[in-house]
Amino acid sequence: MGDYGDFEEMQEGQPIVGNTSPEQAGGRVRLPRGEEKIGVLVSRLGANRMEVRTMDGKTMNCRVPGRFKRSMWLRPGDIVLIEPWELDKSKADVIFKYNSSQIIQLKKRGLLTGKAGGF
User: Fold this and answer.
1) pLDDT tens digits along 39-70
2) Domains in the chain, please, with CATH?
3) Among 4, 42, 53, 107, which has the minimal tally of Cβ within 10 Å of its Cβ?
């Protein structure tokens, strides 16, 4: 019996770790740090540019940096994390896209409120 490793006895009422959803487990979500902001992608402008409305109601011209171009597919209505440029604060880079379970966590924390709309 010792060949299979050590196993813990399941207690009654104890959740099964493998079957819990991120909403139940409290899941991790990337939060804005420093000057980063959460926003909603309003429209694609072409040539890797897009218009993003932040939670404080400002509209910014954003782009996807080259290191994310192939891995991040964006559509209007997506919730994204943006980082403003150092020299021109009206422009920003899209650095992260939130999935549906992360959006639920942001709503629970009260970070998706404001004039951005679409929630």
Assistant:
1) 999 998 887 889 999 988 889 999 888 777 77
2) 29-119 (2.40.50.140)
3) 4
